[in-house]
Structure formats: C-alpha cells, structure tokens
Prior knowledge:
The chain is an alpha/beta fold and 416 residues long. Helix content is 45%, strand content 19%. It folds into two domains: 193 residues, Rossmann fold (3-Layer(aba) Sandwich); 153 residues, Rossmann fold, CATH 3.40.50.2300. The strands form three sheets. Strands 7-6-8-9-10-14-15 form a seven-stranded mixed beta sheet, sandwiched between helices. It is elongated, with a radius of gyration of 27 Å.
Amino acid sequence: MKKTKKIISLLLIVGLMISTLVACGNNEENSSQNSGETSSESSSGETSSESNSEDSDVIKIGGIAPLTGGVAVYGVAADNGVKLAVKEINANGGILGKQIEYISYDDKGDTTEAVNAYKKLTSNDEVDAIIGAVTSKPTLAVTPLAAKDKIPMISPTATALDVTQAGDNIFRACFIDPYQGEVMAKFAVEELNVSKVAILYNTADDYSTGVAEAFKEAVERSGVEVVNFEGYNGDDKDFKAILTNVKSQNPEAVFIPDYYKNLGTILPQAKELGITATFLGADGWDGVLTVAPEAAEGAYFCSHYSPEDESEEVQNFLKMYKEEYGEDPVSFAALGYDAMKILAAAIEKAGSTDKEAVIEALAETNITSVTGNITFDENRNPIKDAAIIKIEGGKNTLFTKVSLKEDLVQEEEGEK
C-alpha cells in the first residue's frame, strides 16, 4: 500500500512538472508575440526598411504637435490641417488602395514630451512615417532618433536651420529661418526702397535670432544701413527703452521677427512712442491681429500662403477647412495639410511604405498644393514662393509674392 501511495505521489509530481513546463512555454511564446517582434520602426535603432503596413489594410502615419500649452495655437492648427488632408485622401481611396490611420500625440511644446511621443509612435504604434513636430526645439529633440531609425519624417512648421541636418530622411514643408529673412530683405529693398532699417529680436528664441541675422546680412549686402540690431528677452514687458533708442535713429523700417504674443506688447508701445516706421515681420506674426490689431496696421510680414490667393488649391482648402472646423485656417493649418499631401504623394510614388523608397520619393517631390509649387533643395528644405501679407483695415491682405528661386539659381551658377 505504501508503495502504491509513493507511485501515485511521484506520478502527481511528474504531472505538475510537465504542466508547469508547458505553461512556461506558452507564456514565453505569448510574450514574444505580444512584444511585437516588429522592431523595424523601434527607437532602439535596430531598424529595417521593411514597413509594418506592407501586410496591413491601413497605412499608419504618426503626428507630434503641441495640442495643449503655450504654443497650442500652432499645434492645433497644424494637426487640424493634417487631419483634413487625411480625411480627403481617405475619401478618395486612400494611398495605394489603403486607408490612412493618423495617430497624433501632444508634445506640449516640450522636448521631453516630444521624445516620449516619438517613442510611442515608433515602438507602440509602429507608424510608417511621422509628421511633426511643429515648433523647432521639440523637432530638434526628435530628429536624431528619427535619423537613427531611418523613418520618413516631415515637419510642417519647424523653421530652425538645423532641423533637416540630422539625416536624409528629415524634410519640412515650411521655409527655413534664413529663407524668411532673405525674403523680407528682398521685399524691403525692392518693394519698399528702404535705405535705413532697425532690427529687434528675441535673444531667447532661436527662430527670432536666426531670421534677424539672415535679414541683417541680406539688407547690408544690398547697401542698406542697419541703425539698430538689438536683442530683448522674451519675458520682458517693458520695451520702451529699446524702442526709444530705435526712434532716435529714425529708421524707415523696423524688422521684428518674433511670435505674435510678444508683438502684442511691443507694437502698442512703439505706437505710443510715436514711431512711424513701417514694421516688418516673419511668419510668427500670423495671429498678431488677435493681440494688437490697431498697432499692427500697415505692417508687412511673410507667410506661407494667403486666403486671398485665388488658386484652385487654396480656395478648395479654405472651403473644406471652414466646413470641417467652422473657422478660417491660419498658415500652420495650411502647412499641416501640405505636409500630409507631400507624404501621401511620396508613398504613392514609392509604390509601398518601404522606408528607403519613401525617402527617395520625398526628395523628388514636385507638388502644387496650398502653399505653392513645392520642390526640395539638397538639404530637404522647400523651394517655393513666399506670400507677403499687409495688415490693412484690420485684415491680413495678400500684397505680393516674393520668390528667391532666381536668386538661388544665380548663386548656383556663380559657384560653378
């Protein structure tokens, strides 16, 4: 009897050991499956050009934008533009017969949040390409990761010069900072015939500093005297000392490349001091009418597009955007829309979502959309016309368009 009990006990122990081993094997197999085994777009750097959408019925596009926080006005507009393009493309059959799944995360205008968003998109969502980020600093935090992973990435609105230098897979839909400075310099010299200008810039902001330096170099090259080149802190509230100095120099134009929130303080103080010079700005002025409509009257700034442009692309975009969101689109919305259109055209041309094929197709972009006919230079920055906006009667009006294409061609020929 004792022997029988021992045998039974041994059989029970063996049975438990076998069941445990089977369970462990199943758990390891499930763990392997759940972990994805799809590191082709992981931020770890162990990448492959194979796409996760090749065997899927959707194409996943990631988005990174400040949807809350101090610069949310830009991020929401850009994100809305992307979503509008996605809706339009999907309604017309999608890309390569597949629908686009757009997944966007809020970076709050913060570099750490932007990196976290990138890792979610690549590791968890396994997107095929990324649109973003929106402002320059978060974009610059993400581009080294995207370059390492070789994932196609296009920022709709990050203007800092270094954005595309991380790798040949990084593109943008907007002008770079130096381009804007040169465009406004050309306008000031050729259209306004200025001979003496003052330049004020935000020392705490790379965008403001970069545009200001490019403008200064370009106008001085044309023989214009720069009587003031002065920086201020973005947190300043009283600009009267620096503006009094500007007034004493009696410039014909004052160039202030900054975002509209600071202009809401600077422009009214300039008017109070009786400065009669023509004020000039860059694309950060988009929105200035919400903070200083009277003080901004008569000013000019460059933008990526104008709602007054009568082209079919612009007018169709305006109609769709207003129907979707109940408001007129700012330039950040137009750039978000164009970024998605550029990316969709590249994937279609590539014939797949293979990373290398899409990157090559992006470099060969030649598309006419809301912000004009867009091609890319060797640094993957767009070459296109800039809209010069005049603030007149409390409205943004299209004054003219300025192109640097001929200037760039002449420079290239001169270097040969």
